[in-house]
Design goal:
disordered N terminus, 797 residues, 7-stranded mixed beta sheet, mainly beta, globular
Length: 797
């Protein structure tokens, strides 16, 4: 397919900045080796057509109906998914009248070891799978004729401790720029002085003159608010010599600024314009927030002068049934659901996230720890980043910081996670180098790193950091001194943050944050479940091939479909008011146990089910736990009180009863000051008789990218969810959309994520619809044998 681009400045509306066009559609893809595929005349007519983002590891294996295999090279770490080599090609034209302009391609992320070719010329490689990068194509472009971009991706060997996905899994952009233009990620907006009455906005803009003549450049920077009203402006003219650059450095004052915060994430936009020879050469829009951050042992983390406790969680980069495909809506939904569950902070473990994710955090008010690496010179897998660290760390750090430093959501830079050489003099020297280099690019945020198995000689490494990150520093119980307190006694000026904590230790970890201002927050492992590191939340460590068919970690507060798991409801009572939920301990373990699990392997939660269907266990006692933020909870079975119990810090906000099972209705009632204020109910459900469909969005954009997440529930005739239902469900969708993914969050299911069917698990499954480029009505029909089908109507505009 030939794509013709008309990218003259001002000639059309662009998705990003002036001269930038999304380059995701109509690629050809081949899974495997393809000698000579970089050449223009290579025959790719038999290759598969794909649109980006794309991840071949989530796709069904050739000749199979599943992406999983017990013999996959990735093994437990990669969730038994298959990696390998893949090729992408795309044909396009650049109009002849664009000759004289610079043609640049930007990749937001390719996993991994990407080699980029244009018209048979090798532009270079990019090993790291998580940093964005770009190449200037100009010298090899055939203006007015056919061009071919080819990308070879090599995700070979054991190179990741989690599911990474494979391929061009983030957006690609084509940029057409005048010879005089803003450098890549060359805009840097800071707010050095902030008060309620005014704010100083400092704009540093690096402008390149790639022409052969000196030029007089007029620089204009407009600051506009969310209503698109100009609130400040800077103008300056400067002569820039041929083949050189100049950094404009201007300060504007914004009166009565609306400050960016978690509760009110108000954004401003810097509209930067570059003029020369009497014409507009470039207009770039940079969103930013006006806000002030600080960190100290007395006040903790402060945002705009107010202490904010970081209610944090870690997550990996995949999007569950979509694999690692970073659709904008998938990234946004993740932030929305985490925010709804009380989170105000995310640690991007253990790599920089997609630009779309950070943009969502900016819009929705989610704070971010932006992390660079999982290892440095000493690797954790034979083929991981340690092979490239010496040659590439500086380029990758620069890419992370310069790309992400305008995001108000980003409040930390993390230089690494559980770095093996952290206790050695060499590791300390490396930490100093990384921290110093980041500070040279952005000195407005603190440096941190996540440290586990804290060695006795930890201080030299921690001394290179502004905030010390502790993985699994157990929080204090009610009468037990915490590790943090011991550390504070030793190092009273140290600001600490829990960069990882066990779900099972949620209470102690959070109480340490509540009690001690020098512990500024806690990040649970994990906020969102993920593919890979299979079964650390059940079978634990040490891991082995016999864990198959487990493929999910099963440790997240929220599962891969976006549904809250029991531990998330417990975290609700630690973080929020007016919370009450009840769960039952199954009479038999939900899955077979691992008798050899290590004592330190505590990424699991209690075996808990939101279920009151226990046929065969009549009159046998079942443990019922209520998670409650109320003063007291009373439990009722079929209208009969089973007693009232207190829930507070001394009970860890949990009340328990042993209840002889009887079918019917189990009700927990919460009381404050003796008054009933809330209740939580479990009801025995009959056989599935109805299908319920619930979409997160019914109105979509016809942009070939937008998503709707549709939850499918199996209800009995009275409308009760049947938590035991595992019926096979079939999906049929109209032509204005396609099925992007299906799932059910069962950590041992090896079903396809892409076929138009899925079994329910706990009575539910998920269908993800993706729009095409054609507007129109969308209908989804869901059917299952013996149950009336159900249809949901949506609209794509």
């Amino acid at each position: 397919m030939m794509v013709c681009l008309f990218l003259a400045t001002g000639s059309r509306a662009f998705s990003q900045d002036t001269g930038t066009e999304n380059f995701d559609n109509s690629w050809s893809f081949f899974r495997g080796g393809a000698q000579g595929a970089e050449n223009v005349k290579f025959d790719d007519s038999h290759w598969r057509k794909v649109d980006l983002p794309h991840d071949w590891s989530i796709e069904d294996l050739p000749g199979a109906l599943s992406p999983f295999s017990p013999s996959a090279i990735s093994q437990v770490s990669g969730g038994f998914t298959t990696v390998g080599t893949g090729w992408y090609r795309k044909q396009f034209t650049v109009p002849a009248d664009q000759k004289g302009k610079r043609i640049i391609i930007q990749f937001d992320g390719i996993y991994m070891n990407a080699t980029i070719f244009i018209n048979g010329h090798n532009l270079g490689q990019h090993p790291y799978g998580y940093t964005s990068f770009w190449f200037d194509l100009t010298d090899h472009i055939n203006f007015g004729g056919e061009n071919v971009i080819a990308v070879e991706v090599k995700n070979e060997g054991q190179n990741s401790r989690w599911y990474s996905g494979s391929g061009i899994y983030r957006h690609v952009w084509l940029q057409v720029k005048d010879p005089v233009h803003i450098a890549q990620w060359g805009n840097f907006i800071t707010t050095p002085e902030v008060s309620a009455s005014s704010a100083k906005v400092n704009a540093k803009t690096k402008v390149l003159n790639e022409s052969d003549q000196d030029v007089m450049v007029k620089y204009v920077n407009h600051i506009v608010n969310k209503e698109n009203k100009e609130v400040a402006i800077n103008l300056k003219e400067e002569k820039i010599k041929a083949r050189s650059d100049y950094q404009f450095d201007q300060i504007a004052t914004v009166n009565n600024p609306v400050l960016w915060s978690c509760e009110a994430p108000s954004l401003y936009t810097a509209v930067t314009e570059i003029y020369y020879d009497g014409k507009l050469a470039e207009r770039m829009k940079t969103d930013f927030g006006i806000r002030k951050i600080s960190f100290d042992v007395k006040n903790g983390f402060m945002l705009n002068g107010k202490t904010v406790k970081l209610k944090g969680g870690c997550f990996h980069n995949d999007n569950g049934p979509l694999g690692s495909k970073a659709y904008d809506r998938a990234e946004e939904r993740k932030v929305e659901l985490l925010k709804a569950s009380g989170y105000n902070a995310i640690r991007c473990s253990h790599n920089p996230p997609s630009p779309a994710f950070l943009a969502a955090c900016d819009r929705l008010g989610m704070l971010v720890m932006d992390e660079a690496f999982d290892c440095w010179r000493q690797g954790k897998n034979a083929y991981d980043y340690h092979l490239y660290f010496d040659q590439w760390w500086q380029k990758d750090v620069e890419g992370m910081v310069t790309r992400d430093r305008n995001h108000p959501s980003v409040i930390f830079w993390s230089i690494g996670n559980e770095i093996p050489e952290r206790a050695s003099p060499e590791g300390v020297d490396e930490a100093k180098k990384l921290a110093a280099y980041i500070k040279s690019l952005d000195d407005t945020r603190p440096i941190t790193s996540a440290v586990n198995y804290t060695p006795a000689n930890r201080d030299p490494f921690f001394n290179t950091l502004d905030v010390s990150g502790y993985n699994y520093a157990v929080g204090g119980d009610n009468n037990q001194k915490s590790f943090y307190e011991t550390e504070h006694d030793r190092a009273p000026d140290r600001v600490m943050v829990g960069t990882e904590s066990y779900p099972l230790e949620a209470f102690g970890s959070w109480m340490a944050v509540e009690d001690h201002p020098y512990v500024i927050g806690d990040f649970v492992w994990t906020a969102w479940d993920y593919i890979g590191e299979a079964s650390i939340g059940w079978l634990g460590y040490q891991q082995e091939n016999s864990f198959y068919p487990w493929n999910l970690a099963f440790c997240g507060d929220i599962d891969i479909c976006g549904w809250k798991r029991p531990q998330s409801y417990y975290r609700d009572v630690l973080w929020k008011s007016d919370q009450l939920s009840i769960f039952v301990t199954p009479p038999k373990p939900s899955f077979p146990l691992n008798p050899h699990i290590e004592s330190w392997s505590k990424w699991n939660w209690l075996d808990a089910a939101a279920c009151w269907n226990w046929k065969g266990y009549e009159n046998k006692p079942l443990t019922v736990n209520a998670y409650s933020s109320y003063e007291q909870v009373e439990l009722f079975l079929n209208g009969k009180s089973l007693g009232k119990k207190e829930t507070n810090r001394s009970t860890k906000f949990i009340a328990s009863w042993d209840v002889p099972y009887q079918a019917g209705k189990l009700v927990a009632v919460g009381y404050d000051s003796g008054k009933k204020v809330n209740e939580s109910v479990l009801t025995t459900a009959a056989a599935p008789a109805l299908i319920k469909l619930s979409a997160d969005r019914l109105k979509l954009k016809a942009n070939n990218q937008d998503l709707s997440y549709i939850t499918v529930e199996l209800l009995d005739k009275n409308g009760n969810l049947n938590p035991d239902a595992q019926n096979l469900l079939h999906f049929k969708v109209s032509r204005a959309a396609t099925i992007a993914g299906v799932g059910n969050a069962n950590p041992t299911s090896v079903e396809s994520f892409q076929r138009p069917q899925r079994k329910a698990w706990h009575g539910k499954c998920l269908v993800i619809l993706k729009t095409t480029g054609t507007p129109g009505p969308i209908s989804l029909e869901v059917s299952s044998p013996g149950i009336p089908s159900k249809t949901l109507n949506l609209q794509s505009n």
